[in-house]
Amino acid sequence: MLSGITVTHIAVCLVVLTLLVFAPFVGNAFVSLDDNYLIYANPAVQNFTWSNLVHVFTSYDPQLYIPLTFVSWQINALVFGMNAWAFHVVNLLLHCANVVLVLLILRRLSGSLFIAGFAAALFAIHPIQTEAVLWAASRKDLLSGLFFLLSTHAYLRYREHDWIRKWLLWSIVFFALGLLSKVSVITLPVWLLGIDWLQKRRIDRQMFLEKIPYVILAVIFGMIAVYGKSRVLGSSGSLVNVLLPAKSAVFYLQKFFYPVGLSVIYPYSGQASFLMEFALSIGIILALMVTALIFFRGKNRLITFGIATYFLLLTPSFTTFWKNGFLYFASDRYVYLASIGFFVIVALLLRCLYGILKPTGVHVLSCVIIVLLVPVSWAQSSVWSSTEALYRNVVLFYPDSVMAQTNLGLELQLTGNLKEARERYVRAMELDPHSVHAYFNLASLENKEGHPAEAERLYVAIVDAFGTDQVGTASDVRPFLWLIKRLNDLGRPADAERLFKKLETLAPAQLEEAVKKQNEIDAAN
Fold first, then answer.
1. Which CATH number applies to 389-524?
2. Which of 197, 236, 192 is nearest to 213 (CA)?
3. Which residues are 3's β-sheet partners?
4. Fewer CB atoms inside 10 A, N or C side of the chain?
5. Percent helix, strand, coil in the chain (nearest 5)?
6. CATH 1.25.40.10: which residues of the chain?
7. pTM
8. Cα 468 from Cα 420, distance rounded (Å)
């Protein structure tokens, strides 16, 4: 047994463990994936002014509504400047706070210090958490997670302290702050109902009435989120929308057990063999989960609660498979909170071994598991040391990723490795002849090397390859507006007009917004 050890002791150990794993990597640089346009190249973050504060509360990022996250970045930049280490340090501190909150919440829900401590330790240092902790742009996942957990903790205090209303009010306030950080915490009201069920609360009118403020907030922010992601929701086919959530849920489970081959990009191939390969495994694993739910339902509610938590907290990510013209089936940061459900199940099953291994043996085994995870997390953390390292890791495991090949080529071009950059662009174009990003980058390289005729040929190829998948937001339109002007300058008005008509037909709303913004920029200059 854990005699003499308190929650405070374990909390301190967990914070030290978390710092041991991730603190060596807070010196990592920014990466060009989202960090650029969200943070270090974003005027709204660089300058903390009243107008910029208003801007972040009245705009998207461009798809997510995350004003409070932007405010945290603004304060970061104001206090420490645009230094990457400072952004990483704040991320790490947020994660440490979340680890302690997970410990406190699970201690109340499970009644077991071992289950709470071991599950919180897995949450703290499992390699799949690396992306959320060490990616500066993933602040939104950590910050929204913090308020989600604070809201839950306040709700539990409300339940435990004679229904003192101030705790319920704080829970609602924290939920609102979480939604302002990232709307992915929208499932909190259902999670709280799950907690009521877990604690065998009597189902009555009061139980549902006190959830009304949560539901109202969820509906409001849900509508804001749908508006911002309206195109994303409709970018992939109905079959993909059904199959990818199941595949991603199974994929994360696989990575929990075997955290090797983690990547910032998990591209969806769309091949028939791909679907057939996972159909059987998805069916088997989901069947096992349903069996577990039925078998344990009357014996241990925590198992059922853990399974439901995993799927419930993962659900908001099922509308985010389509990004920047590419389709992905998973992202490690999306499972940041959902992992709590899985880790609870693992801890509970390990505790079931008390009768076989004795408590001391189980505690030793749990320590061995944690120790084995540390070097794996270190290795994954090193992947985030630079943009080049990040994309080389993607290409290592997913060599057919068009986005990874293109972005790696761009990073190599920026660092002067033009030969390999060209090879990466060519490879991306071979993988997808309609990948206009690779055409743009290769045309830039050709101009830099003094081959204007080849660059002009690539400009025309972009017009031929252009399709609706290349434009999701007004920001995506801007390169094409530049290209229209460039084609006119090169004496190719017919190609310029052809591209403009494609934009008018395939992305009229984005074109209108982009032209409006460009006119505002021109007027300001």
1. 1.25.40.10
2. 192
3. none
4. C
5. 80, 0, 20
6. 389-524
7. 0.91
8. 29
